[in-house]
Amino acid sequence: MGTINLTLTDILIIYLIILIPIFISFYLKLGLVKNIIISVSRMSVQLFLIGLYLKFIFQINSFIVNMLWISFMILVANFSLLKQSKLPVKALFPWTLIGISAASVSIMAIFVWGIISPAPFYDARYTIPIFGMILGNCMNSNIISLERFFSGIKKNEKEFIALQMLGADLNEATLPYIKTALTTSISPQLSSIATMGIVSLPGMMTGQMLGGAIPMTAIAYQIAIMICILSAMVSASTINLFILRKISFNNQGMLKQAFLK
User: Fold this and answer.
1) 174, 254 in Cβ contact below 8 A?
2) pLDDT by residue (tens digit) across 195-211?
3) Do 209 and 149 share a structural domain?
4) Domain encompassing residue 147
């Protein structure tokens, strides 16, 4: 049995549900009404357009087109993570691109091209959605880890300086902040994984079952994608933290001016 389609009327009814958070925001004066409306509107337009484009990509199913789309996804994700981390985009864009692209592409290649092995191996139905899930989570973990790393050092500047005055080199002085940044960025994902299946039914598994897949097949895919996502998140965040540690400090072991804003 295939997925039951939602009619235009169904979608319009769904949109009425958004009145609940709008009312709460208005009643409690949270100041989020405009943000809610803009966010939902942007999501709707973007998903509609991307749906049309993905239909086009799936029909063509070209290796070159798929790789160009993956490259575009990486560039947008990298720009977004720097912007949301409030870090200098121009100075760091090529550096953070290394971590997020290396981790997401390599993990996707192992899972899709090495394990699932669709024919052709670059099949857009597998490569694009799975890569999107991995990349999106890598972006979110990098936003948290980079923001926490730099804000931690700035907030504890005296402690950071004291460590170096006591003889710690830059690697030793920054290690506690790297550990905190990684732990903070990964902990929500670990909590989600630990309660998956009991507290929540994850999106990929639910989507496959709605599409007619048998539960055990959907569960196998979900386990695989969650392990891939976790591995990519940890890898991307670690790579970028270690790279930025090399380029973000001056010869005196202090943050460069561009990172103090």
Assistant:
1) no
2) 887 766 667 666 776 67
3) yes
4) 61-259
Determine contact, residues 84/225, Cβ cutoff 8 Å: no
Q: Do 146 and 71 fall into the same domain?
A: yes
pTM of the model: 0.84
Query: For 98-137, how does the pLDDT look when each residue is reduced to its tens digit (9 = 90+)?
Result: 999 999 999 999 999 999 999 999 999 899 989 999 999 9
Burial (CB count <10 Å: 0-12, 13-18, 19+), residue 137: buried
Phi first, then psi, for residue 33 (nearest 5°) are -55, -50
Per the structure, the count of domains in the chain is 2
SS3 79: helix
Three-state DSSP string of 213-230: CCHHHHHHHHHHHHHHHH
Instruction: Report the Cα 17 to chain-centroid distance in Å.
Output: 27
- Contact present, 63 and 122 (Cβ < 8 Å): yes
CA dist 112 and 126 (Å) reads 7
Asked whether the beta carbons of 143 and 85 are under 8 A apart, the reply is yes
